[in-house]
Structure formats: structure tokens, C-alpha cells
Design a protein that fits this description.
mainly alpha; 72% helix; elongated
Length: 75
């Protein structure tokens, strides 16, 4: 677990293809010293990340719900 460490989160993303939860990503941003213009661009990118994360969460939930109602194949 990366516990607000962007380097470890990036490493996990590359290894496990897992995106950090938006709350943890926001906290990583807040704990990093940034120039004003860099912070503004990063905030814009974060807002986009937040919207897409929510959309993908809904999509993934729908897929899992459909799969949960199906029958498992015999091994």
C-alpha cells in the first residue's frame, strides 16, 4: 500500500494496473509543494481524473452486477 507516496502509487500502477483512489491522490497533491501555475494545471487534470474515475467505477459496477447474476462455468 502506498499511503500517500506518489512513487509507490506509480510503482503499483505499473505492476498491478490499479489507480489510486481520488481522495488519496488529492492528498498526495496537497502534500506536494507546487508553483501556482503547476498547481492550477494539476488541479484541472485531477478534476478530469475524478470524473473519469467515477464513470469507470459505475461501468465496472454494472459489469460486475451482470456477472454476479450469471452462472459459473464448470471447472
Amino acid at each position: 500500500m502506498y499511503h500517500y507516496d506518489p512513487s509507490l502509487a506509480l510503482e503499483e500502477l505499473q505492476e498491478d494496473a490499479m489507480l489510486p483512489h481520488p481522495v488519496k491522490l488529492r492528498d498526495m497533491i496537497l502534500r506536494t509543494k507546487l508553483e501556482a501555475n503547476e498547481a492550477q494545471v494539476l488541479n484541472h487534470d485531477f478534476q478530469d481524473y475524478l470524473a473519469r474515475f467515477g464513470e469507470l467505477q459505475k461501468l465496472g459496477c454494472g459489469i460486475l452486477e451482470r456477472l454476479a447474476t450469471g452462472q459459473r462455468k464448470a471447472s
